[in-house]
Amino acid sequence: MKRQLILENGTFFIGEAFGSTEKMVGEVVFNTGMTGYQEILSDPSYCGQIVTMTYPLIGNYGINRDDFESIEPYIHGLVVKEVCKVPSNWRSEMTLEEYLKAKNIPGLAGIDTRKLTKIIRQHGTLKGAICDLDVNVHEVVEWLRSTNLPNDQVKRVSTKRAYPSPGRGHRVVLIDFGMKHGILRELNKRKCDVIVLPYNATAEEVLRLKPDGIMLSNGPGNPKDVPEAIEMIQGVLGKVPLFGICLGHQLFALACGADTEKMKFGHRGSNHPVKHLATGKVAITSQNHGYTVNEQSLKQTRLEVTHVALNDGTVEGLRHLDYPAFTVQYHPEASPGPEDANHLFDEFISMIEQFKKEGEVVYA
């Protein structure tokens, strides 16, 4: 069955349908990872997006029970050059197509993904629609151009109520803006007593739980669409050690008086080099973001840049000069990708222990 991907700039691609036959609209982006499609499909940060995989063969190791980053996916479509229908891996329990059908996600295969990626790199991320061949392309293009995509992604993907992930170690309140399970796994490995809260939790609700540390998770969309979180961060900053990842990093910057801006086509993949300015060491990181912290805006804050992206020089890490708080734009939990930056979770635990040792824990 043939279907098509129509972009708001008028370009369209006709390919082979797989997965769901649902019509879907979303922001079309590309991911440069050679593996990790299962984690990408289940990463809440892709909420509302149609993801193009630049690696040509996708689905060759199937879908397994262990590599999900959320229970339900929020992605709006998957575009590939070639989809493997007969996977080969000892952990495989279903094919990629079976999973997409079960979760009502449309797929499109057999198109020139290299051409599509070059269009996105040239024009920036574009709105697009996966639909049948019988639609009027011109009408779809006009509709895409005149329509604003929803900006409530964080509300859609965040937990609706608090829940615990018990441990015997330090108590960490994890704010769920679209949390990947990999973050929770890393905290659990370190025996943390984790309490997960919704995105709109207030500073009072967070501090009432007597946390030893606060973690701000990754998530989708524009950080300026989550003003509740900015206010919460301002209310806890300096009272409890804080560690932010991806969207959490951007929200932290906004809370401290910096600014964020939309990138042309973002960073999405598991092969992005990041330099630690203090040591000069380079880590290969997993990334998934379409916004970045404006470096010039940091001059009016008490924030210091700790990491930069080697590909384009954008800000990849921050620390507060007065309070125990640091954040990174990339994903130290990987899933998928290299684990070069996994040590940041240990640094967070060390920061908590040092803060406790100095007797500076303040809950109100």
Automatic annotation (TrEMBL):
Pathway as given in its UniProt record: Amino-acid biosynthesis; L-arginine biosynthesis; carbamoyl phosphate from bicarbonate: step 1/1; Pyrimidine metabolism; UMP biosynthesis via de novo pathway; (S)-dihydroorotate from bicarbonate: step 1/3
Region: CPSase, residue numbers: 1-170
Enzyme kind, highest EC tier: ligase
GO-annotated molecular function: ATP binding; carbamoyl-phosphate synthase (glutamine-hydrolyzing) activity; glutaminase activity
Residues annotated as catalytic: C246 (nucleophile), H331, E333
Keyword Cytoplasm in annotation: no
Gene3D superfamilies in the record: 3.40.50.880, Carbamoyl-phosphate synthase small subunit, N-terminal domain
Keyword Ligase: yes
A family per Pfam: GATase
EC number from the UniProt entry: 6.3.5.5
NCBIfam families: CPSaseIIsmall (TIGR01368), PRK12838.1 (NF009475)
Protein name: Carbamoyl phosphate synthase small chain
Natural source organism: Paranoxybacillus vitaminiphilus
